[in-house]
Amino acid sequence: MLHSNSGMEERDEIRSRPHVPLSQLLLQYRRELSALGLADPKKQLLGAGAFGVAYAVYLGDMVSVLKLTRDPYEVLSSCALEGKATEHIVPIFRVWSMNSTKPRKNWQPWFLIHRGYLEPVGGKDKEALERLFMLHSDEDLDLWLPRGGASGRGMREKWRAEVRSEYEGQPQSARRAMLLLDQISEAVRELRRYGIDWHDFHSDNMMRDTRGHLRIADVASAS
Fold this sequence. Notes:
- By secondary structure, this protein is an alpha+beta fold.
- The protein contains 8 helices and 8 strands.
- Helices cover 41% and strands 19% of the residues.
- Strand 7 (206-208) and strand 8 form a beta hairpin.
- Helix 6 (123-136) crosses helix 8 and helix 7 runs antiparallel to helix 8 (171-193).
């Protein structure tokens, strides 16, 4: 499995390493990025995080995403998923290393990931995902619900009890939350088939594809 036991301290250390500024990176790779559909970074920006940025690009009649990242865990997971026909995970089309962005040994390099486009979850499902995330903070609640067997049934019943308590007097909302949990569990199961032990669950990491199916959007394997 691809995973990290060193937690947030290691990620903070990686985040703090010196790196080529994004503005310099965009200028340096302007020709290559333009060929991949990134012509106007400001207009095409989808979002920015601690390790990088994501842009919407249009190649033919398909919208997809270019992500510039310094997160080695996301890169490892993306390489494992590259070119795979996934059902519950954002499709990863190609991963590139940007070797010239590591001028010195202690610098953190940049990588480029071309992946599928997903829509944010909104409304009541967004709220349900946030509640599931809060319940998941209980270390006894695992996102991986094995099919069959005593352990699988036991974990599902733990979740069911917590969800019913969370949605007391709202049985329909509780059932909907459990349906979402089942979809998350399927995605976690699929990642494990590719050797990825994923713990980065929060509401913004679950998005929908063009068919409305829930998928894991950020595949970084470290928690």
